Amino acid sequence: MDKHVLVTGGSQGIGRAVVLRLLSDGYRVVNFDLVPPAHTAPGEDFNEVDLVDGAALDAALSALLTKHPVVRLVNNAGIVRPAPIERATADDLAAVSALNLLAPLRLLQGLLPAMRDAGFGRVVNISSRAALGKLERSVYAATKAGLHGMTRTWALELGAYGVTVNAVGPGPIATDLFERVNPPRHPNTEKIRNAIPVKRMGTAEDVAHAVASLIDDRAGFITGQVLYVCGGMTVGLGNDA
Q: Is the pLDDT of residue 236 over 70?
């Protein structure tokens, strides 16, 4: 089976960890991102692509598929526009939906003919625990909950073609962005850490491991699932009752 994987938003953070893990597992990775990685890794093909520009995305997919079929997709790219409900706007919803929902749809549509021809495909959508509800995340949570709905629907529609579709929902992950907002050893950061049952922050590599397991050829009987990589925090939601 072809060993190419298309990863969106693979230049930084969780996406970067996914790219590096898949490369170490022997895949060749195509990275669609607006910004280049600090260092392009051996086996990585970086493509500067604006995923919310439909014409640009279609052109990038067409150019990619003239080189080789791609039957593995990781929809990682996403944005957040935090705001309390009274300040959430229609523009926020449109902008976040364009990247978090419409881009994954268009990407899968572009790769689907190759997956059907191969009788095989793997799709992993990067979601978030915010889909369960989070303060000041009306727009973001809505898009991630929507991604869950698409994940399950695609799993039902595509299972007969050998295509599995799953989502990974990271919990508190110590990315550069998280640490800028939550400095290490700050009391609020410690409060977050202490609320995690495994008593540590997650790493981007923890998420990458989950993605790698679902991308694998042998993961053919897992589909339509949302796997929370959260150190047990999602289980702990019931402990407040």
A: no
List the domain boundaries for the chain: 4-234
Residue of 79, 81, 76 lying closest to 138 (CA atoms)? 81
Q: What is the DSSP string of the chain?
A: ---EEEEESTTSHHHHHHHHHHHHTT-EEEEEESS--SSPPTTEEEEE--TT-HHHHHHHHHHHHHH----EEEE-------B-GGG--HHHHHHHHIIIIIHHHHHHHHHHHHHHHHT-EEEEEE--GGGG--TTBHHHHHHHHHHHHHHHHHHHHHGGGTEEEEEEEE-SB--HHHHHHS-TT-HHHHHHHHTSTTSS-B-HHHHHHHHHHHHSTT-TT--S-EEEESTTTTGGGGGG-
161 included as an active-site residue: no
Q: What is the pLDDT of residue 46?
A: 98
Let me know: does 167 contact 230? Beta carbons within 8 Å.
no
Contacting residues for 195 by C-beta, under 8 A, at least 6 apart: 233, 236
Render pLDDT for 46-88 as a digit per residue (tens, 0 to 9).
Answer: 999 999 999 999 999 999 999 999 999 999 999 999 899 999 9
Per-residue HEC secondary structure of 131-156 comes to: HHCCCCEHHHHHHHHHHHHHHHHHHH
Confirm or reject CATH 2.60.40.10 for domain 4-234, answering yes or no. no
Measured distance CA(231)–CA(212) in Å, rounded = 18
Task: Please answer whether residues 65 and 110 qualify as being in contact, where contact means their C-beta atoms are separated by less than 8 angstroms.
Answer: yes
Q: How far apart are CA 220 and CA 72, in angstroms?
A: 13
The residue annotated as part of the active site, out of 27, 140, 161, 228, is 140
